[in-house]
Amino acid sequence: MTLHSCKDNSNASSGETEKSQTEETASTETDSTSKTILFFGDSLTAGYGLEDPDDAFPGLIQDRIDSLGLDYTVINAGLSGETTAGGRNRLEWVLEPDVDIFVLELGANDGLRGVNVAETRENLQWMIDQVKIEAPEAKIVLVGMQLPPNLGTEYTRDFKELFPDLAEENNITLVPFLLENVGGVARLNQNDGIHPTAEGHKLVAENVWPILESLLNE
Fold first, then answer.
1. Residue 196 and residue 179 in contact, taking contact as beta carbons nearer than 8 Å
2. Cα dihedral sign, 116-120-171-181
3. For the segment 157-207, what is each residue's pLDDT rounded down to a tens digit?
4. What residues are annotated to the active site?
């Protein structure tokens, strides 16, 4: 499995580099399989801080798929530092009409920056709509996220409820909370207390796999 590198999207040149790398990855991956799972997310998807990007949960999902002999290839389109606004701008670079499963994992950086929940909702809804237009046969999975309580009770509540609400409104599949049993557990996170270690990503993959497996078996 080939994973493109994780880069910060703080300037235009790095964005163009990311675009080129992502397009190249997508081309390479989709040529070798009849079915594709695209993970579109931020540093949690990209595997920030890991020695080997394949140790991030999308890579572990690929390992599980391979062990079962299923004809799916995972594309990791995670980008460290990505917000939902950045995702709107980047989506067209990576989205292909033949994507079979689209996993949307964005919003955590919005929350940590205190972005208005209504704005995050609007951006996520826009991306869901675009996937339905550009890849109408794709099954969409929305990945839920939660924030630490120090960001305020009302804000953290509204942010948490955003994901199940969007999933229900759009009739798409939901991973309730990506970091279940990982978030806030020191031994499973890197020194920043935010990004999972390789061991933490194993549990993250276990949070995602049952949801994804149900779609693979349909």
1. yes
2. negative
3. 999 999 999 999 999 999 999 999 999 999 999 999 999 999 999 999 999
4. 43, 192, 195
| In the predicted structure, residue 130 carries a pLDDT above the cut 90 | yes
Query: Residue 148 has what DSSP assignment?
Result: -
pLDDT over threshold 80, residue 85: yes
| 173-175 vs 36-41, strand pairing mode | unpaired
Query: Phi/psi class of residue 8: alpha, beta or left (left: φ > 0; alpha: ψ in -120 to 50)?
Result: beta
Residue in this structure with the two tokens 């799916």, named with its chain if needed = 72
3-state SS, residue 97: coil
Domain boundaries, the chain: 12-216
> Which residues make Cβ contacts (< 8 Å) with residue 72, sequence separation at least 6?
33, 35, 36, 37, 65, 100, 101, 216
Contact 211, 175 (CB under 8 A): yes
Residue with tokens 């499973």: 188
Compute the distance between CA of residue 93 and CA of residue 128 in angstroms, rounded to an integer. Answer: 15
The residue among 48, 72, 106 whose CA lies nearest residue 209 is 72
E strands along the chain, which residues?
36-41, 73-78, 101-105, 139-143, 173-175
β partners of residue 104: 40, 142
* CATH number of the domain located at residue range(s) 12-216 in this protein: 3.40.50.1110
- In the beta sheet, which residues pair with residue 174? 142
Tally the residues of the chain: 218
Q: What angle do CA 40, 72, 137 make, to 5 degrees?
A: 65
